[in-house]
Amino acid sequence: MSRAPDTWILTADCPSVLGTVDAVTRYLFEQGCYVTEHHSFDDRLSGRFFIRVEFRQPDGFDEQGFRAGLTERGEAFGMIFELTAPNYRPKVVIMVSKADHCLNDLLYRQRINQLSMDVVAVVSNHPDLEPLARWHEIPYYHFPLDPNDKPAQESKVWQVIEESGAELVILARYMQVLSPDLCRKLDGKAINIHHSLLPGFKGAKPYHQAYNKGVKLVGATAHYINNDLDEGPIIAQGVEVVDHSHYPEDLIAKGRDIEGLTLARAVGYHIERRVFLNANRTVVL
After folding, report:
1. Keyword Cytoplasm, does the record have it (predicted)?
2. At residue 101, what are phi and psi to the nearest 5 degrees?
3. Are 234 and 195 in a shared domain?
4. Which of 10, 57, 152, 216 is the most buried (most CB within 10 A)?
5. Angle at alpha carbon of residue 234, lines to 230 and 237, rounded to 5°
6. Which H or E run includes 258?
7. pTM attached to this predicted model
């Protein structure tokens, strides 16, 4: 479900206590706000409550006053909230290596406004995809990787992220493992796409591994990065049935399609404020 362009987004989470839904919805009613979409989830195992509401503001809406009032109302519940204005478009940096299918898909979805974001830079350890970025009039930064001095390369990457004001980093088949330091800086702000339903078929030639195992499903996993390789909180997964007639090149072709779609879905969830971190898991509303 895509977000309406004229609505605000209110997201909040707090411990599971009586009256949390009422605290949010009653406040919106008292402020004259019209709710257009509402989802909530109470995790009985972690004892935490999550809510996401889209609403239209009344005439004369006072954002600062709204925030102050909700802060006061939510104190009794230990509530943490975030308010996102209409037409919000986060600045995004995309990191790539040589494969172009995910980058091409993301840039196309941005161009037709299916993904409401502004890609402000493409960063790569190879020069191959510069023409694609240039066609979209997006700055391209080629930072070759010296295996003996990885921190120097990552410092340049981080400089681009900081100076561009990017709120989200997308690893669109960036085939390098990020250092613990960069993972820490990008915690909850970087999405990676992996070529399988994690965990499985790690390392080189994953689709050849899958072929040799005679798999009947191929898929992709989009997740937030962390310092545990390919084990960050999962946002979205995609899957497709295959059989004995699919050779490695067929699996690769299907994998490209699934990777692009799954990554786009995860990015959409993130920029529409639908994803909540819940320990090592996510809640997607």
Report:
1. no
2. -65, -40
3. yes
4. 10
5. 100
6. helix 248-271
7. 0.91
| pLDDT confidence bin for 191, thresholds 50/70/90 | very high
Last residue of a domain, one of 58, 84, 110: 84
- 67 and 111 inside one domain: no
Note down the domain range covering 119: 91-284
Tokens of 11: 């997201």
User: Is residue 204 scored above 80 in pLDDT?
Assistant: no
Over residues 88-96, mean pLDDT: 97
What CATH number has the domain bearing residue 41?
3.30.70.260
Q: Which position among 118, 187, 230, 250 bears the catalytic label? A: 230
Q: Kindly state whether residue 1 falls inside one of the protein's structural domains.
A: no
Q: Are 241 and 210 within 8 A, CB to CB?
A: no
Q: For the purposes of burial, counting CB atoms within 10 Å of the CB of 38, is it exposed (0-12), middle (13-18) or buried (19 or more)? A: middle
Residue where a domain stops, chosen among 47, 69, 84? 84
Spatial separation of the C-alpha atoms in residues 163 and 73, rounded to whole Å: 36
Q: Quote the CA–CA distance of 243 and 15 in Å, as a whole number.
A: 46
More confident residue, 198 or 205: 205
| pLDDT at 1 (0 to 100) | 56
Give the total number of structural domains in the chain.
2
Given a cut of 60, whether residue 108 has pLDDT beyond it is yes
Cβ contact 216:222 at 8 Å: no
